[in-house]
Amino acid sequence: MKNLKHASFANPYPALTAHELGAALLPILERRFPLLASEFIGLFSHHTEGVNSSLVGLGSEFRLIALNDGERLNLELQHENSVCLSRTLALDPSTLFHEQLFGAVAQFINQLSPWLQEHHGLPPSTAFLGGWRCATHPERLNEPVIFTLPRVMCRISDQQLDFSCFHEDIWYAIDESLITFATDFTPTANPRVTGREDIPSCTDYVDNLIGLLNELAPTTADKVVIGREVKLTLERPIAPALLLRLIAPRPNPHYEYVFRWADEVAWVGISPETLLRKNGRSLVVEPLAGTRKGSHEHDKSARYRQELMSDLKELEEHETAAGLFFEQLSTVCESGSLSLRESRSVIDLGYVQHLKSLISGTVKTGLNVFDALAAVYPPATIWGKPLAACGERIRRYEQIERGFFTGGLGYFTLGDDANFALAIRTAKLTSTHIHVYAGSGIVKASDPYREWLETNNKMKPYLANEYVWNLP
After folding, report:
1. What are the φ/ψ torsions at residue 378 (nearest 5 degrees)?
2. What 3-state class would DSSP assign to 275?
3. How far is CA 188 from the centre of its chain?
4. CA distances (Å), 338 to each of 65, 341, 378, in order?
5. What's the pLDDT score for residue 468?
6. pTM check: above 0.90
7. Which of 430, 409, 404, 431 is nearest to 420 (CA)?
8. C-alpha–C-alpha distance, residues 191 and 118, integer Å
9. Pairing of strands 40-48, 51-58
């Protein structure tokens, strides 16, 4: 591996935000470096504390993966065709899978971060892009975690673009001409969708929820999140960056991302929810739970907002999620450091509105971001409460494979900073289909058909955006 090289360029298009520049730069880099793009492409844009930032990466210099064979978790740091570091953990069937997964990754990170800094001279700011799949069926999940340190990376702010690269034969092609065409682009040919399939059908979905509600009726605080899928058939393949351009709002005050590894399946999303971000020892989570239609319903949006803020079912769902976060963070944060900075505020995404809380704290000395994830994931916003019972109920009543949907996508650095979006408002893109996912929190007061309508509303960026998908 060669020494890491750097170059910075001023943003030539000050009217464009980092989100817009990232989305425009990704296809340019794909065309310039097709071999790197076949290994990995990653785009992760976020709006944090009022600042826009975007990371764009191609190629795979190092890769961190967790492999699950049902009895053990095998963690590896890979460089090209060799394994640099590895660690194995025997799985305990009596302990929640996600807790064991992130606990193992936390220990592995403590090993690989100093190794990469000492042996390869990488700075603490070095970022791995990637995430983890949601293990609703852990026995089927062969690769629950994957992160990539790209061969080429561009960090974008609203003011400038900072490139880094590992190899001389790639570095020569990185110059200011790369960004001269990085303008906001409008699709010249909208995708054509030739078919739609709801998985499960509306009738089956409602019937499943009726069965689930019969189980929840005797309880007082249980919640289960049940997801569903809409499968759209494409007339011809489309690029992940194009799909992102079609669905992402402008300006976007939240997250947008594209991730694709060598299996040619891309995950594209515009999540409004911070699962967890860490800067130094400061930790923040921003749970969203409780939903109504948004400001796109012009004359009714104020009414929906008032309903959201007063509906007992929505309030119960939100308080359950926020309360569980607070309880879990207390195990990894310094005593007395937890603060509820926002409670039941409303964010309006246009197609839907959500209740939001913001909880912050100081991580205990000696713990890293994956120790924190072991405590808080899966959150009640995508799983439910109590955790163990929800996993069993999801396996019986949900009829989809989630993959990265409701997992986490983002980055962590060797210095243990991180930003992870909860992967909602997310779709899986293949050469022939767009698989759109949404879930809904089910409590004893839920109306099954209303939950179906809520998931429809959550899918609107993909199903009813400005470039309407017209079926013949």
Report:
1. -80, 140
2. strand
3. 28
4. 32, 9, 19
5. 46
6. yes
7. 409
8. 48
9. antiparallel
Measured between alpha carbons, how far is 412 from 102 in angstroms, rounded to an integer? 13
Report, as an integer, the average pLDDT of 316-342.
Answer: 88
Q: DSSP string of 336-395?
A: T--EEEEEEEEEE-SSEEEEEEEEEEEBPTT--HHHHHHHH-S-TTTSEESHHHHHHHHH
Give domain status of residue 109, yes or no: no
396 in a domain, yes or no? yes
Tell whether 118 is covered by a domain: no
**Phi/psi at 437 (5° precision):** -120, 150
Whether 199 and 168 share a structural domain: no
How many structural domains are present in the chain? 2
Task: Assess whether pLDDT exceeds 70 at residue 2.
Answer: no
Show the tokens assigned to 132: 């983890």
Name residues whose C-beta falls within 8 Å of residue 413's C-beta, 6 or more positions apart in sequence: 124, 125, 126, 127, 128
Question: Are residues 276 and 344 part of one domain?
Answer: yes
In this structure, the number of other CB atoms found within 10 A of the CB of residue 53 comes to 18
Listed in order, strand segments (DSSP E) in 59-199 are 62-68, 72-79, 82-90, 127-132, 145-149, 152-156, 160-165, 193-199
Q: Classify 344 in phi/psi space as left (phi over 0), alpha (psi -120 to 50) or beta.
A: left
Establish if 246 belongs to a structural domain. Answer: no
pLDDT tops 70 at residue 219? no
Measure CA of the first residue to CA of the last residue in the chain; give whole Å. 52
Residue 15's contacts (CB-CB under 8 Å, 6 or more residues apart) are none
Residue 176 identity: E
Which letter does DSSP use for residue 270 in this model?
Answer: -
Confidence band (pLDDT; 50, 70, 90) for 397?
very high
Which residue, 143, 172, 201, sits at the end of a domain? Answer: 172
The residue ranking higher by pLDDT, 231 or 15, is 231
- C-alpha–C-alpha distance, residues 255 and 294, integer Å: 18
Amino acid making up residue 78: Q
Could you tell me how many helices (H) and strands (E) the chain has, helices first?
Answer: 12, 24
| Cα(226)–Cα(304) distance, integer angstroms | 23
Domain that holds residue 157: 5-60+151-172
Q: How far apart are CA 254 and CA 251, in angstroms?
A: 9
Q: How far apart are CA 260 and CA 429, in angstroms?
A: 9
200-205 long-range Cβ contacts below 8 angstroms, 24+ apart: 200/228, 200/399, 202/449, 202/452, 204/399, 205/448, 205/452
The continuous run of DSSP H or E covering 116 comes out as: helix 97-120
My answer on whether 156 and 217 are in the same domain is: no
Tokens of 353: 């509105």
Listed residue (456, 451, 453, 458) closest to 314, CA to CA: 451
Q: 113, 139, 172: which is the final residue of a domain? A: 172
314, 294, 257, 285: which is closest to 441 by C-alpha?
A: 314
Q: What is the mean pLDDT of the chain?
A: 90
Q: Average pLDDT in the 185-200 region? A: 79
Cα radius of gyration (the chain) = 22
Contacts of residue 167, defined as CB under 8 A and 6 or more positions apart, other chains included, come to 2, 151
